[in-house]
Each structure stands twice: as structure tokens, then as C-alpha cells.
Amino acid sequence: MKVLTVKQPFASLIICGYKKYEFRSWKTSYRGELYIHAGKGLDKKRLDMVKEYNLDYPKGYIIGKVNLVDCVLVDKKMSKELNKMNPDVYTHDYTGMYAWCLDDCEKLEKPIEVKGKLSIWNYEEK
User: Fold this and answer.
1) For the chain, what is the domain count?
2) Pairing mode, if any, of strands 32-42 and 2-8?
3) For residue 88, is pLDDT > 90?
4) What pTM does this model have?
């Protein structure tokens, strides 16, 4: 199964449906199911901004899966729309970044402890 490592609190925001776009400087042609791995990194500033969501923020685990449905280059208009959509989650100017459009978020009942990797990587289920 394909996996994407994402820093917390963003990984949990994705799995719980608050963050429908993940941003990367590179595009992907991959479409389909994708595990979300919560990396060991933690953005403390952003964590403070989303504390009212009352989520758990495990680190070092595959915490859920999503469906990657599209990958689009963000222009100024889209960036402004994202900032209005949810200012707690979308706070930057994403112009020039690629928005990975995520759908069908599903939290795993039992997270899988595993080391993360860069880019999209494969996890062999046991």
C-alpha cells in the first residue's frame, strides 16, 4: 500500500476530515488509496492553533487512509479560497505548491507503528 508521511498535527487533521488538501512542492500522477503516516515531527505553533479540535496526535504511526483523487497546481485565487475555507488549517500562501486532493478519510482502529520515509513510499502489510 502506498504511504505518505505527514507532520503532526496535519496528519490527524487529514484523517479526521478537517484538512482536505496536503501540499507539496512536487506533483504526483498517483491516484488511489494512500495511508497517512504521522511522522515524528510536530509543528507546535500549528498545534496551538487547532487545540480546540481536541484530537490525538500520535507520532510514528500509520493512522489512517485516504483516497488521493487529484493533484493541482495552486494559483493565487485557490490559495485565497483555501485560507477562507478554514483559516485554522490553511494559513499560508500556497501559490505555486501542488495541492493533493484527499477524500474518503478513514481512521485506522489500530495504528501501525512504523518509520516514515520521504516521498510516497510502500508499506508491506503483514
Assistant:
1) 1
2) parallel
3) no
4) 0.92
